[in-house]
Amino acid sequence: MENDLNNSLKIKENNSLNEKKIGKIIDKYENIYEGEIINGQANGQGTKTYKDGRIYTGIFKNNNRHGKGILIRPDGTKFIGCYKNDEQDGLGMNITKEGQKLIGLFDEGKAIKGKAIMYYNENNKYNMHFSNKYEGDFQNNKREGYGIFIMSNGDRYEGEFQKDTYNGKGIYYWANGNKFEGGFKNDKKEGRGKLIFNDGDILDCLWKDDDPLEDI
After folding, report:
1. Does the pLDDT value for residue 3 go beyond 80?
2. DSSP characters over 62-130
């Protein structure tokens, strides 16, 4: 009888320990979690406010972000998507404070493949900064596949990218009205292509390292 009573008490204690409840956890880094708690850890739906100002609302497992959630950063950017073991993992979307979106697959916090509309600064040879826009495919944080790259000086490239450079078939438009249709390799005109001038003249020939070769 006494053993049965002791076993019954142990079962009740274990059930109490594993029972889901709403509470607050402050970790050693002074981050604050508020939400569902099981076995003394963040498990289930909750919100974690980090000391650096980030706020995550979503699913937790054993104190880690694990499942769908939204992360809002102090600079106004946000991430909406899936987490695994506290890292962005799976389908997700990064949104800038201006509302520009990068949608793709993430692995261990890095965007590996998807589509994007991105604005960013890029140095030119005179060390001046210009805001450029890319809209298209990306992989492993680089432009890869088909995309449109619009430069602040009015130039535009539409075509294939490989390892972040113009590679394959494409069209380059200059702000002055000229355009080139043909092949590219490492950001340079390569292979058969037509340079069409704004006055209607056409240079149709083979190209190598951005220079025209004798037409054959």
Report:
1. no
2. TTEEEEEEEEE-TTS-EEEEEEETTEEEEEEEEE-TT--EEEEEEETTEEEEEEEEEEEEEE-TT--EE
Q: How far is the C-alpha of 31 from the C-alpha of 40, rounded, in Å?
A: 16
For residues 48 and 37, what is the distance between their CA atoms, to the nearest angstrom? 12
The whole-angstrom separation of Cα 16 and Cα 211 is 77
Structure tokens at 102: 């990068």
Q: Which two tokens stand for residue 89?
A: 């993992």
Q: 211 vs 189, 193, 208, CA distance in Å?
A: 7, 11, 5
Tokens 């109490």 locate to: 16
CATH value at residue 36:
2.20.110
**Residues of the domain holding 22:** 1-90
Task: Give the global pTM.
Answer: 0.60
- Model confidence pLDDT, tens digit, residues 93-113: 888 887 777 888 888 887 778
What distance in Å separates the CA atoms of residue 208 and residue 120, rounded to the nearest whole number? 30
